[in-house]
Amino acid sequence: MRPDKLVARIAIYAVLGFFALIFLAPLYVVLVTSLKTLPELRVGTMLALPQGLNFDAWGKAWSSACTGAACNGLQPFFMNSVYIVIPSVIISSMIGSINGYALAQWRFPGSEIIFTGLLFGFFIPFQAILLPAAQFLGMLKLANTIPGLIIIQTVYGIAFCTMLFRNYYVAMPLELVKAARVDGAGFFRIFWRIFLPISLPIFTVCVIWQFTHIWNDFLFGVVFSGPESRPITVGLNNLVNTSEGVKEYNVDTAAALITALPTLIVYIIGGRYFIRGLTAGAVKG
Amino acid sequence: MADTIPADAGLRKGLARPSRASVWADKWIPLVVLSPSVVISLIFVYGFLAATAVLSFTNSTLMPRYVGAGFQRYIDLFSNSVWWTSVANLFWFSVPFIVLSLGLGLLLAILMDQRIRAEGALRAIYLYPLALSQIVAGTAWQWLFNPEYGIQNTVRALGFTSFEFNWLNDSRMAMACVVIAAVWQCTGFVAALFLAGLRGVDEEVIKAGMVDGASMPVIYRRIVLPAMWPVFFSVLLLLTHQAIKTFDLVVAMTAGGPGTSTWLPSYFMYNFSFERGRMGVGAASAVMILVMVVAILIPMMYLEKRAQKNAS
Amino acid sequence: MTGLSIRNVHKSYGNVPVLKGINIDVAEGEFLILVGSSGCGKSTLLNMIAGLETITQGEIAIGGRVVNDLPPKSRDIAMVFQSYALYPSMTVRENISFGLEIRKVAPEERKRIVEAVAESLQISHLLDRKPRQLSGGQRQRVAMGRALARDPTLFLFDEPLSNLDAQLRIEMRSEIKMMHKRTGKTVCYVTHDQVEAMTLGDRIAVMKDGVVQQLGRPQEIYDAPANMYVAGFIGAPPMNFIPGTLEGEGSGLVMSIDTGAERRRLALPFRPADVKARPGQKVVLGLRPERITAAGASTSDPLKVRVDMTEPTGPDTLIYATLNGKRTLCRVQPFAAPKAGEAIALDFDLSRALLFDPESGARLDGGLAG
User: Fold this and answer.
1) Share of chain C above pLDDT 90, in %
2) Which residues form the ABC transporter domain (chain C) (predicted)?
């Protein structure tokens, strides 16, 4: 390699490496902080490694830290999030897949209008629907309940799921449906026998995206939940920002990591699909 | 004779009996399948948007009350200095956030496009913040910006004992902290999109440029980047949208403070609607947020469409 | 009994007419080709026969049964698609038996049919593969197998060979022809390739702008095209169209030809009474390249032509010359081929010449060549 080329290569790696460290730094700092004791925090810098693996802060964050009046840690919030996320992800993905199939493979006059109309739900700022939505849940007697949040998360997830599946199925030749219709199959049988079996990748993308999105949601959580139904993001915020007594930064950071862990794990396992979901959202039709 | 063949001649071969129903089904089932989503969308999206607009013309405070109040709520909103602070803050948040994420994202994408090793790992590192909740991100950065334990303390420990870094509690600099956290969260995403765009540029065009004797920087500036306008617009659109919607990060990092120095319109809407019980003003601000999104996004989507057309 | 009859069929999308009154009757067991360039409406017509598109006006009957209101599955048809449209998640075996399964054919019977079909197409060893593990030619065979298994009254083919490379295309072409001979079923076959049309069809319908320009046997269409479009579309290399002016000479008709090497009046073999044009009128002389050959000892009146370019194809060599300002192709034996820039004496066999109106493209010679 020519010397000037070599210098250029080194420079490229140096810049990329520098930014990689910057990007990782907050995670590192939060992790080491969560493993320290309070006195230990006071002596060293935030970059210093902990003296040992001390999970006390994690235990406290999980089961006994105070979030406002209650002191049961994040555990109940964590379970609330699980109960909200699982049904919303499943239902919105299923509705999205059949919608996407109908829109991409069974075009009819007006199908493009319906698609655009549904897609709009993905663009609106949710502030613009919060007040009527709260009132609506109240009317259904679902205000401040987990089922209420499931409905909200499902409904506002449909637009994205529909778009994702529609853009996936639109790449399949229309001749598949034609061939199957000549073979005698109808709408649902063609979906079930021909399109669903090839939809695993896009289901993975959709489930990962919806899971991350709903787990990380704060706005709906804080507006539509009550003391018994708060999701984990609301729990974390309450834990960190209640200014009662001594600030336990190690517990705060442990709580942040507990909140982040499910989506981080999903990201590490399914990163490839995660990126596909992001780019699909960006390059819409 | 042709016409004497019975209409069910195919039945011996197991053909389904031709029925009106099956012709009807092929035509209407897709619409029937879509109709629940259409109805849901009409209620939860379009209906609720309309309801918010209606609320903004009423006297509602803690509970919705449908008593007309004309433009009073908008007059309240526009004469509220906190609202104007929030709008100004949004500008001072959005512009640096968008410029920095775009610039840094494009830089990382171009560098990652140089056939480097460990590209997958690097991309994963740049992108992981996006998998985190903004509440988590806010918590982490709040800790880093903490003067007693965070960056200030660490730099002082290195010997720079007079180092001052207490932006989070400084009403002029607090927004910068939110910007840094937001850039940290979104840059990897921008880089991933740009990288996908760069990879989408025809290899042969680049080879043609090399045969023509152009250097790599020239090829990027003259051939590759101009082909990226559609991606650029997409990214700009997404970042703008993201900026207007930003809410969680402010709640987690500053709760709007110090004072109202990090209030954004989204925070204003939440605060007035759900904490101060001034629902009418909250609704009016929600309508204004919607207007902002529409006013900024529609021309940009139009430009994006046009750029895509020109590029193809 | 008719295999397929299309009576005054119209199709429009909104206000845009796509098919403008199609009338075709296909005898049982006949192989009909619908040919034309893209956008002529041939695929739309095929989809309407299949029941995949609605009929705006007119009537389609398959095996004597009007099928206008029947869904595809009740029309007793099978269809082979350009992209093959094999179900990606199913094995070859499942692909072939899917239609039978939906028609509730008993499993043992299905197995028997699938194996017989696979045998006849030599794909028995592929039955447990997925479509993505197959080559283009194999996919094509599976698509045919899927159609054959159904044993329909009418086979529909939608450009089935256009995704194959040249060699496979010829192989599969004869395969389709053999299949037709074996089954004796009615076939309706869409293509844009005139060679396929000529080689496969019992009859060809040449379509343009939603209208059937000509319906006839391949040789008929080749020798006596109804108009300039058909004449130019069928045949490769295409027919030469030499512009000129019709002149009278004695009791016959002549046309002046400027070859670049000489200028001569050629006697045309038409009786003035049959020709729908008068002397002095501008016309186009249609002459296929193989009718312009190197002059031999028996040539009574050779014409000297300056050669612009030559193109050896192996069996013969194509010569490009300019006649009346129009590029013209001539087909000569390789040994007789000159070099570019040289002159050659050519024999113009006008016995199969045609005369067209340069404006409308209509035939002017009254259909009486020779």
Assistant:
1) 66
2) 4-234
Q: How far apart are CA B35 and CA B285, in angstroms?
A: 32
Q: Is the predicted pLDDT of residue C139 greater than 80, yes or no? A: yes
Structure tokens at C251: 């009791």
Q: Can you read off the two tokens belonging to residue B295?
A: 């006013």
Provide the whole-model pTM.
0.86
Residue C156 within any structural domain of the chain: yes
Cβ-nearest to A184 among C88, C99, C158: C99
| Mean predicted confidence (pLDDT) in C275-302 | 88
Distance from CA of B19 to the nearest CA of C (A): 7
> C217 with C246, same domain?
no
Residue range B76-311, CATH number: 1.10.3720.10
Helix (H, G, I), strand (E, B) or coil at C119: helix
CA distances, A237 to each of A67, A234, B76, B254, C63 (Å): 8, 5, 31, 11, 74
Each residue's pLDDT tens digit, C49-58: 999 998 999 9
Question: Does the CB of B26 have a partner CB in chain C at under 8 Å?
Answer: yes
pLDDT band at residue B33 using 50, 70 and 90 as cut-offs: very high
* Angstroms from B12 CA to nearest CA on chain C: 11
Do residue A183 and residue C150 have CB atoms under 8 angstroms apart?
yes
Contact across the interface for C98 and A183, Cβ inside 8 Å: yes
Residue indicated by tokens 């032509």: C305
Residues C189 and C69 occupy one common structural domain: yes
Report all structural domains of chain A as residue ranges with CATH numbers, in order of start. 3-54 (no CATH), 70-282 (1.10.3720.10)
Identify the domain containing residue C258 by its residue range: 240-356
**A117:B270 CB<8 A:** no
Determine which of C2, C74, C105 to mutate to test the interface with B (most B C-beta atoms within 10 Å): C74
Is the pLDDT at B9 greater than 50? The verdict is: no
Among C53, C98, C153, most A C-beta atoms within 10 A, so best to mutate, is: C98
* pLDDT at C369 > cutoff 50: no
pLDDT in tens, B243-277: 999 999 999 999 887 889 999 999 999 999 998 88
Spell out which residues of chain B touch residue C105, defining contact as CB-CB under 8 Å.
14
* Residue A75 φ/ψ region, left for φ over 0, alpha for ψ in the -120 to 50 degree band, beta for the rest: alpha
pLDDT score recorded for residue C240: 94
User: Same domain for C283 and C167?
Assistant: no
C171 and C252 share a domain?
A: no
Chain-chain contact of B2 with C1 (C-beta, under 8 angstroms): yes
Q: Is residue C188 part of a domain?
A: yes
* H helix intervals, A170-248: 175-182, 187-190, 200-216, 219-224, 232-241
Segments making up each domain of chain B, as ranges: 20-55, 76-311
C368 domain-assigned? no
C250 and C214 in a common domain:
no
ipTM of the complex: 0.91
Segment A191-235, tens digit of pLDDT: 999 999 999 989 999 999 999 999 999 999 999 998 889 999 999
Nearest CA-CA distance, residue C53 and chain A, Å: 10
Contact B15 C74 (CB under 8 A): yes
Last residue of a domain, one of C211, C233, C255: C233
pLDDT for the residue numbered B153: 82
Secondary structure (DSSP) of C249-292: ETTEEEEEEE-SS-EEEEEE---TTT-SS-TT-EEEEEE-GGGE
Domain count, chain C: 2
Contact B184, A23 (CB under 8 A): yes
Is residue C361 a part of any domain in this protein? no
**Partners of chain B (3+ Cβ pairs below 8 A):** A, C
- Beta carbons of A186 and B104 less than 8 Å apart: no
Asked which of C233, C265, C291 is the last residue of a domain, the reply is: C233
- B212-229 mean pLDDT: 83
Distance of CA C50 to the CA centre of its chain: 21
Closest-CA residue to A216 (of A206, A227, A208): A208
CATH number of the domain residue C157 falls in: 3.40.50.300
Q: Are residues C194 and C250 in the same domain?
A: no
